[in-house]
Design goal:
The complex is a heterodimer of chains A (about 100) and B (about 425).
Chain A (H helix, E strand, L loop, with lengths): L1 H15 L13 H8 L20 H13 L5 H6 L4 H14 L1
Helix pairs in contact in A: 3-5
Chain B lengths: L1 H22 L13 E5 L3 H10 L7 E6 L4 E2 L4 H5 L9 E2 L10 E4 L2 E5 L4 E4 L4 E3 L2 E4 L3 E3 L9 H6 L9 H9 L5 E7 L9 H15 L4 E7 L7 H11 L4 E4 L7 E5 L4 E4 L4 E3 L2 E4 L3 E3 L27 E3 L13 H19 L8 E11 L2 E12 L4 E4 L3 E2 L6 H23 L1
Parallel strand pairs in B: 1-2, 1-9, 2-5, 9-19, 11-12, 11-17, 12-13
Antiparallel strand pairs in B: 3-4, 6-7, 7-8, 10-18, 14-15, 15-16, 20-21, 21-22, 21-23
The chains are: A mainly alpha (about 100), B alpha/beta (about 425).
């Protein structure tokens, strides 16, 4: 009985689950995400048209990423951040803070 | 599974070292200092990005880059040249010798690769051996798909699907007179930069409108839909009303014949379209570098390491591969190249293969101050070992002029950064 209920419930959860980059904290090495961010947010010689991540305070970075997720305006940063979970964002903030 | 792969790679690495020492006596005396030799073929967004990331390990690797041309003209922003608001020289790059001072640059044309013997043969009959090879040769064209259209006719009617020919397309557009009809034949999937035919049409329209000319642009399509279609249609209605006609494949849009003499295109339903300027963007396939290769249009790769399925120690990135859900774009090539570099380094140094993630954004101009985009993250689906999208999303259809202009700045910023990252 439990199995009969659990299977459709699990399938529903799978179907309605928001797509995320990493399902567990250790699934994706943060370097893999950072490398993609670097196409716009390069460590050195960044564009004057795109802000650097390397100059931001850790808490400011986390707040801004969460704000991008919340404001559903289809902006490029909303579309990029919406698949990140809080662990991803914290790991990114740590990475950029350490490189500062 | 990872363990086996690493052991296999370790064995391959040791074997390669052995073969290299036997083949190249001058290395025998420096056995203790032997450094694995990685050769990259192609200095564009795929090869150049891989080079940029592998270079971080140049104290452990001997890195070579093989490129046919000393200068590279980017495909991104080539349609802005056609639009008449950007110079071709702004899209011209060469690898910065200062950044790549520890990389050996070889300007030569590859004739073929013998992956069994791990040797590259050049057109001038010189050879280069390698331990690991990364190729990013880009695309070739299917010249037999449209009757009457081939390499010869392309000299007079250039497709302009590499960055260097953008000026030729601009000159053709600039020579048009008032009330001209432009025919643009859009290819079937997959092809380099899916939104680019429609961006090109938009910027031809911008160029002609800016010069006060009346015109009609007819897009004859081999597909029944295309990326960012609603955004393009909205832009065309706002910026160039009553100037565009898009004919899908099911409406008879697929071009099967060029009548060059009469400046006409004939579609598979027998309809004939006449135009003062014809731009055929042909169907595409990989550029082939191998002897006795199979007939697949695209190279099949392991999506975590980008090693070819049928050529060991050869990795491929960019437009030449089947990358699952990822489109063929500079951004995609850049993203794949970073994963390839990271995990190739891990293979060579006997470290763990990392789970990859990829990202792509394609910005499209409908006018110099009007840009919209499509983007997606990608992961590898472990069940079928293919790259899958986590869901594509586009700019909001109701964005105002300010938001379209903000995307112009994002696009320019991305271009500045990625070209800096690749070329130095």
């Amino acid at each position: 009985m439990i199995n009969l209920l659990t299977i459709p419930l699990f399938l529903c959860l799978l179907f309605f689950q928001k797509p995320v980059l990493s399902n567990s904290k250790d699934e994706i090495n943060i370097k893999m995400i950072v490398n993609n961010c670097a196409s716009c947010h390069l460590e050195n010689n960044h564009s004057e048209l795109i802000p650097s991540f390397f100059e931001k305070e850790r808490e400011v970075f986390i707040k801004q990423m969460i704000d991008f997720q919340k404001i559903n305006d289809d902006s490029i940063m909303h579309r990029i951040t919406k698949v990140l979970n809080l662990d991803d964002i914290r790991a990114l903030a740590d990475y950029y803070y350490e490189k500062k | 599974m990872k363990k086996n792969k690493i052991n296999l790679n370790k064995r391959r690495f040791i074997k390669t070292l052995g073969i290299s020492f036997l083949s190249f006596p001058f290395l025998k005396g420096v056995r203790a200092n032997y450094r694995p030799k990685v050769v990259i073929i192609g200095g564009g967004f795929g090869g150049g990005s891989c080079l940029s990331y592998l270079q971080k390990f140049s104290n452990q690797l001997d890195i070579f880059l093989v490129e046919k041309n000393k200068y590279y003209y980017t495909c991104p922003y080539s349609n802005s040249v056609v639009g008449g608001f950007r110079s071709l020289k702004d899209n011209k790059f060469s690898l910065n010798n200062l950044k790549y001072n520890d990389v050996k640059l070889i300007y030569n044309e590859v004739k073929f690769i013998d992956s069994e013997k791990k040797i590259i043969k050049f057109s001038n009959d010189e050879f280069l051996n390698y331990d690991w090879l990364v190729i990013s040769p880009g695309i070739d064209f299917k010249w037999d798909d449209i009757e009457g259209y081939n390499i010869e006719t392309n000299k007079n009617l250039p497709h302009g699907w590499d960055g260097a020919d953008a000026k030729i397309i601009l000159d053709k557009v600039n020579s048009l007179e008032d009330n001209s009809t432009i025919l643009l034949s859009a290819p079937d999937y997959p092809y380099r930069c899916p939104p680019a035919p429609y961006e090109r049409a938009s910027l031809i329209a911008y160029n002609l409108k800016k010069r006060g000319m009346r015109f009609k642009i007819i897009i004859l399509d081999s597909k029944d839909s295309f990326t960012k279609k609603k955004l393009f249609f909205k832009a065309w209605n706002e910026l160039y009303p009553d100037s565009f006609e898009w004919i899908s494949r099911s409406q008879g849009g697929k071009v099967i014949k060029l009548d060059y003499k009469n400046k006409s295109l004939i579609t598979e339903t027998g309809q004939k379209f006449k135009g003062e300027f014809i731009n055929i963007i042909p169907n595409q396939k990989k550029k082939n570098l191998f002897l006795n290769d199979n007939d697949n249009d695209w190279l099949e790769v392991n999506p975590s390491t980008f090693e070819l399925r049928n050529h060991k120690s050869v990795h491929a990135v960019g437009d030449c591969i089947n990358a699952g859900d990822m489109p063929k774009s500079a951004f995609s090539a850049n993203s794949q190249a970073k994963v390839c570099a990271e995990n190739l380094k891990n293979i060579i140094l006997d470290k763990e293969i990392l789970n990859p993630v990829f990202f792509n954004t394609c910005y499209s101009f409908a006018a110099p101050n009007y840009v919209f985009s499509i983007s997606s993250w990608y992961k590898v689906n472990k069940f079928d070992d293919k790259i899958v999208s986590l869901g594509t999303s586009e700019s909001n259809i109701n964005d105002n002029k300010l938001q379209r202009n903000i995307e112009v700045e994002h696009s320019k910023g991305w271009y500045q950064t990625i070209t800096k990252e690749v070329f130095g």
